[in-house]
Every structure is written in structure tokens, then in C-alpha cells.
Design goal:
Elements (H helix, E strand, L loop, with lengths): L23 H31 L1 E8 H10 L1 H6 L3 E8 L1 H14 L5 E5 L3 H6 L23 H5 L2 E2 L2 E2 L2 E7 L1 E5 H6 L9 H12 L17 H8 L16 H15 L11 H7 L4 E4 L2 H9 L7 E4 L9 E10 L6 H12 L1 H11 L2 E2 L8 H5 L1 H10 L2 E2 L7 H18 L3 H16 L1
Parallel strand pairs: 1-2, 1-3, 10-12
Antiparallel strand pairs: 3-10, 4-5, 6-10, 6-11, 7-8, 7-9
Helix pairs in contact: 9-10, 10-17, 17-18
């Protein structure tokens, strides 16, 4: 756990006056000068003490690696806002949910907190955050249309706004260019038909070889397939959304990769190793994987690339990331909003990207030269324009986990797809009632 507090120290400077030759008048003048200096020092000290007393102190909870990096990063904000001190507390993601629950129950929490996009509905429904739409007229960064649309969608719940996008991420396709070229693909698969064909070609290389690796524990993967097939979730329709043909067809397509052994049913070797060795030549992941592969698989540098996700109706992916929200019990709302405004500025988001490699939520920040020159990172910017936000529902994480469990029974235990999805739909209806 890490925190940083800026301490103001008032110190009086000592001025020594050396008197030259003279009589009593010179000595008297010296005494007057010393008295004036003493008064000046007292006034300076008093001003510094008053400034320190007037400085507002805000507390910020940030999670995981972001929390570790933010402690030093806020120095830039404090230099521009000498009247605001920022205390950053880094909280591990594993403890974050419980820490938020405790803060809500006790009414004692930070002024500003980092919030995962899938937690908005749960905690906003519990009254944990301020509705920022009430401050929109005074702060134009709230609901600013320069943010990616999918990111803004996840800040809203029940007609109110409970956060400001801080950074974003999305999934793209990672693929071995050399191996696909050997099987007739000079570029990444562009649609579902090509994706299935390329996966079959790659899986036919021999035992232990696969086409496309699918993370069966990632709650975002099944909805991504559905969004690619034109599925849209409507809150009014509730569990009936899961009866839509676009959703059912997407789950059948997902299952095909396991049914035909194009994707490994068990976890197998780590994806970095499987990708480098060619066993798993295609997979989808986020921006963090770019540097991981550059660092851990240097031998295949130049033999892999990234591309937008292939789709049926659209090349959709999911949008993730984090927001900054104001705790409902904060007594420093103005200062908290000033801090969030600073963190949401395009230049600040570029600096944060340079420090942490997390992607800017402001679209204009993507005009930065470094982001544009890195062709792999630029693909993430293109994908974010087609990224879809998961439904902002308090029950969504449980529903998404139920879906993963149903798909596991289909893929590994041979459960009938239609019957299992019917059971999943009934379970979703019970959760939503």
C-alpha cells in the first residue's frame, strides 16, 4: 500500500547584516534594519502557514499497477494546483471490491476513486457515487464527446452519470503473419468465414496444433462473438435478449472452435509460449500483450501482428478500462472535480500512457505522434471505434459468469447447446427479476 502526502515546511531565513564603521546612528540604523527583516520573516512565515492551512487535501483510491504509478504522477497536478494536496492509496485489485463495499457501508471512503467499468451499476445503485451530470454545466469534461462512445456508455446508470473515463482497453486479434502466409493468408482473417477457414488450416498442421486460442475464463469473450453477429442488448427485453437468433448463432459459432478442436479445450501452455512456438498462432487480447510479446518473445519479432477482430455483421470488440468517480460522502467535491478534469485532459492522458502504457480514453489524444507511429497500438485505436460496452446492470457480472459455465458444459461435457442455453436464459431471468 502506498501513499504520498506533500508536506509544507515553513522556514525562516536568517539575514546577517555586517555594520561598517560608524557611531550610534549607524548602530541604530542597523537595529531598525534587523527589526524590519524580522517583521518580514514573520510575515513570510505567516503567509506560508496560511497557504498550508488553506490547501485542501483530497484522497484518491487507485487500483493495481495504476495505483502504484499514480502516487508520483500527481506531482504534476500539485505543481499546477498549489492549493490542493493529493494523497494516493494503492489498493490491489483483489481487495478493491471488498474495500468499496466497506466504504459504502461505513460512509467513509476516498474523495476520488478508480472504478472498473463493470462495477458502475452495482455501486451506483448503492448510492456510492455523486451524480456528475449535476455538474456538467460547470465542467465540460463530463460527458465530453471527445471520449470514445463505448467508454461514455459505461459511465451512465439509470439516467445519471457516475464517472469520467480515465483510460480504456479493448481486445484485438494477435496472429502469426508467417504461419498464416504459409496457408494462403497474406493478411489477418477479415470475417467469421475466413476466421474459421484459417483456424482449420492451422489446426491441420498436426497433433497439438490449434487455430485460435479462446480464453474460456474471460467474461467478455462470448458477448464479443454476439456483438460481432449484430446482437444488441435491450434492458427492456431482459432475459429475452438471450433468445435472439443473433445471440444463439454466435454461441454456436463459438462452440464450433471447440467441437472441431480448433481451440484447445484445456488451458495448455501459457499463451506467450504457445504463440511463440506456433502451437497457438491466433488469439485475442488487450494492449498489455504487445509489450509482453516484445519482451518475452523477441525471436518472433517481425513474424506477428495485430488486426481488428473479424466479425459477421461488424468487427466488434469490447471496451474496458477504468473511470474516475467522486465518492458520495466527499467533502471536497470541487477539488475532486478539478483533479478529474486534469486527469482527463488529452495531454495528461498522453503522459499517463507514456508512464503506464494504458490507452487514452480521449479520442484526440490518439493524434499523438507515438501512438500514430506504433502501427500495432494504432490498431487498438481503430478497434475502439467499433468497441461495445457491456450492459450496465448490477447483475451483469453474475449473468456473464453463468454464461461461461453453460458454455463450459457444452464444450467439455457434451451438453446440448440449445437446452443449455435455454437453462441459461431461465437463470438470467431469475437474476433480473
Amino acid at each position: 500500500m502506498r501513499s504520498r502526502k506533500l508536506m509544507f515546511i515553513a522556514g525562516a531565513s536568517m539575514l546577517t547584516v555586517v555594520a561598517g564603521c560608524g557611531g550610534n546612528n549607524g548602530t541604530e540604523g542597523n537595529d531598525n534594519a534587523n527589526e524590519g527583516n524580522d517583521n518580514a520573516n514573520v510575515n513570510a512565515n505567516a503567509n506560508e502557514e496560511n497557504n498550508a492551512e488553506e490547501a485542501a487535501e483530497i484522497s484518491v483510491w487507485a487500483m493495481g499497477e495504476e495505483g502504484n504509478a499514480l502516487g508520483e504522477f500527481v506531482e504534476g497536478f500539485e505543481e499546477e494546483h498549489s492549493n490542493i494536496e493529493v494523497n494516493v492509496e494503492a489498493i490491489p485489485w483483489d481487495n478493491a471490491h471488498d474495500s468499496l463495499l466497506t466504504a459504502v457501508a461505513s460512509g467513509e471512503g476516498p474523495d476520488v476513486l478508480q472504478l472498473g467499468t463493470t462495477w458502475v451499476a452495482e455501486f451506483a445503485g448503492a448510492g456510492a457515487f455523486l451524480d456528475l451530470s449535476e455538474y456538467e454545466d460547470e465542467h465540460d469534461f463530463i460527458n465530453h464527446d471527445d471520449f470514445f462512445e463505448g467508454a461514455l456508455d459505461t459511465t451512465e446508470y439509470d439516467g445519471a452519470t457516475y464517472g469520467v473515463p480515465w483510460y480504456v482497453d479493448t481486445r484485438v486479434l494477435f496472429y502469426r503473419t508467417d504461419l498464416l502466409e504459409e496457408h494462403g493468408y497474406s493478411e489477418a482473417p477479415q470475417n467469421w468465414e475466413e476466421m474459421l477457414d484459417a483456424s482449420r488450416e492451422l489446426a491441420d498442421r498436426g497433433d497439438g496444433m490449434y487455430g485460435y486460442d479462446i480464453d474460456q475464463e474471460d467474461q467478455l469473450v462470448p458477448p464479443i462473438f454476439a456483438w460481432q453477429n449484430g446482437w444488441e442488448f435491450s434492458e427492456e427485453d431482459g432475459a429475452e435478449n438471450f433468445a435472439a437468433s443473433e445471440f444463439r448463432e454466435a454461441m454456436e459459432y463459438y462452440h464450433t472452435f471447440f467441437d472441431e478442436e480448433l481451440a484447445q479445450e484445456t488451458e495448455g501452455v501459457p499463451i506467450e509460449q504457445g504463440f511463440e512456438e506456433g502451437e497457438k498462432p491466433m488469439f485475442s487480447s488487450g494492449p498489455w500483450m504487445v509489450n509482453i510479446l516484445r519482451d518475452e518473445a523477441p525471436d518472433i519479432e517481425g513474424d506477428w501482428d495485430v488486426a481488428m477482430m473479424p466479425g459477421s455483421e461488424k468487427n466488434a470488440s469490447a471496451i474496458g478500462g477504468s473511470h474516475l468517480s467522486v465518492f458520495s460522502e466527499s467533502e471536497n467535491v470541487d477539488e475532486s472535480l478539478e483533479f478529474i478534469s486534469y486527469m482527463s485532459e488529452p495531454d495528461t492522458q498522453i503522459d499517463w500512457f507514456n508512464d503506464t502504457n494504458t490507452l487514452p480514453a480521449r479520442q484526440s489524444a490518439w493524434d499523438d505522434e507515438e501512438l500514430q507511429e506504433d502501427e500495432k497500438l494504432a490498431v487498438f485505436g481503430d478497434q475502439l471505434e467499433e468497441a461495445v460496452a457491456p450492459p450496465v446492470l448490477a447483475e451483469w457480472e453474475n449473468i456473464a459468469q453463468d454464461l461461461l459455465s453453460s458454455l463450459e458444459r457444452i464444450n467439455r461435457e457434451g451438453a446440448d447447446l440449445d437446452e443449455e442455453l435455454d437453462s441459461f436464459q431461465e437463470e438470467a431471468e431469475n437474476r433480473l427479476d
